[in-house]
Amino acid sequence: MTAADSTLSESTLVTYYSLVDSGELDAGIALLAPDVSFAILLPGTAVRGTDRDGVRRYLEGRGPVDRRHVPTHATRTGELEFVYGAVVEDGVTITGHFLASARIDDDGLITGYQVAFDPELGLASPSLAPPTHASPDLP
To answer: What's the CA angle centered on 79, arms 104 and 106, to 5 degrees?
Structure first.
């Protein structure tokens, strides 16, 4: 991936979210450097730490969730990657939006991770409704 425009499919963070959301926690955690510094900023609280185990404890502490991250934008400039998207519960309900940033090392591991979630403000949302196709025969 070049330092200029990246796509969602090339994003380390998008891959991380996909793995964690699909229940492949070990594979997602493996994308983090052992000494990753992180800040997870949620309404009214912040979870901070300096290692993979801290991220694992946070994720496991959420309990069973039917939640997924739906990235809509991703870019990378040098070692910094940014992803924006929606958080969707039960497959259809957008509960808020997130903006994540990460520092990616030469081995492709996340060495720094910061994410903010807001349940109110959304700059861009995915379309979660199935596409509808108008028939030319209908009035």
So the answer is: 55
